[in-house]
Amino acid sequence: MFFRYLMLMTLLFLLSGCVNKEHDNSRAVEHMIQSQKLRLLMRELDMVVYERQKSELDRDKMRKRYMLSLGETLKKLSADVESMPESDLGLKLRQEDVLEYKKYAKRLTQKADEIYNLAQKYEFEELNQKLEDVKVSCNACHKQFRKEP
Known about the structure:
Helices cover about 80% and strands about 0% of the residues. It is an all-alpha fold. It folds into two domains: about 1-50; about 55-145. The termini are far apart.
């Protein structure tokens, strides 16, 4: 008896849900028909909000490419400076000054290697400190070898 009652209640519940769904569906269809302009506006908003944002993985790939490019550029610069003949330095340097100049170039190579290695390991948190180290190294060389205006 209880089982029949339960089945009857379940059947009534399902039938009542079907009636309401038809009514709701007609309202939804009516809304969709009347709001094509709204749908286009919402799609445009979605494109602005979501399409331009990169995923965290995409941002990491961009950071890695930037760091690798920076490391390679610094390495090339320092290699060019190290192999540069004394006459191209544009200064009348003593031999010990030339050696000091080359030490700065080697230090720059080391900093570039550190940045490159961090990029390979996706360790972006340390980049700011490494960039500061490069800046300090460059400024020390400039202070020693550039003429002040």
